[in-house]
Amino acid sequence: MVKKVTVVGAGNVGATAAQRLAEKELCDVLLVDIIEGVPQGKALDLAEAAPVEIHDAHIIGANSYEASADSDIVIITAGIPRKPGMSRDDLLATNKNIMKSVTKEVARYSPQATLIIVSNPLDAMCHVAMEESGFPKERVIGMAGVLDSARFRAFIAAELDVSVENIHALVLGGHGDTMVPLPRFSTVSGIPITELLPAARIEELVTRTRNGGAEIVSLLKTGSAYYAPASAAVEMAEAILKDKKKILPCAAYLEGEYGISGLFVGVPVKLGKNGIEQIISLNLADEERQALMKSASAVQELVEVMKKM
Predict the structure, then answer these.
(1) CB-based contacts of 300: which residues, under 8 Å, 6+ apart?
(2) How far is the first Cα of the chain from the last one, in angstroms, to the nearest whole number?
(3) Is the distance from CB of 152 to CB of 134 less than 8 angstroms?
(4) Which domains are delineated in the chain?
(5) 127 included as an active-site residue
(6) How confident is the model over 234-288, as pLDDT tens digits?
(7) Which residues does the chain have with pLDDT short of 50?
């Protein structure tokens, strides 16, 4: 049976995610957006590229959610993007209302779907999605660590002049300035980067990773990153659609793991057909654990602010 993925938001992230899903022939794709003509036009453009890219995935666009019925996965990218000088936290009020509206419709038409949340501020939006949908925690997942780890991997590969295929990296915590890249768990063909780079240079790469999104915003001037975020969301979707049991760092709802309860925080998880099938617990050093708790506190602050809105 052909799988079905709905992508909510036909902006740069959503449209690119739809493209990646189709060209990998993972599923049929529905692109939903409130702006008339935009999802239809982008879907048609992507469909017309199919003979050149050689795939038979069906792609359609819509302004309402009826066509999304019985989706296996819904990737939610809807919301306003960051602008220069704007933090992810500034997006909170507007994107909270958008997320509530979107999730209500998604849950109505696809009650068995797994939600992949991309909208910022990511960790806070996961809370909104889980509360509004009523879905179990296993089926509400935030795209954060996959993107942040990809940025870390790209910087490591460039620094060492090696293939990105050789690099594995791990970034935990909230999707923001307090994220926690873990050099000790980041390797080049199994060799820890701590054996290959001086501590000072590693710290520079860690800092660049934390500021990865802001760096792109400052360069683009009028938008934010979308190629890498879309690729990260699609990697997660592929792991679920193909039941790959893939270990990826994602924002998951924790209930005691890592000493954190009642929060979405980025940790390594196993993704399969049931969504999050296992949360992987690592033995963190004191400094790493303290950094993770600081990041969790930042997420908690956002959630508390959001409750008062």
Answers:
(1) 263
(2) 43
(3) no
(4) 4-142 (3.40.50.720), 145-307 (3.90.110.10)
(5) no
(6) 999 999 999 999 999 999 999 999 999 999 999 999 999 999 999 999 999 999 9
(7) none
- Name the residue type at position 19: Q
Q: How far is CA 221 from CA 14, 82, 215, 216, 225, in A?
A: 20, 10, 10, 8, 11
8 Å CB contact between 169 and 153? yes
Minimal CA–CA distance to 100: which of 76, 68, 74? 76
- Mapped onto helix, strand or coil, the DSSP state of residue 217 is helix
**C-beta of residue 88 within 8 angstroms of C-beta of residue 176:** yes
Provide the pLDDT for residue 89.
62
Q: How many CA atoms lie within 13 A of 204 on its CB side?
A: 8
DSSP 8-state class, residue 303 = H
Structure tokens at 47: 């469909």
What are the backbone dihedrals phi and psi of residue 81, each rounded to the nearest 5 degrees, phi first?
-80, 165
What CA–CA distance (Å, rounded) separates 10 from 153? 28
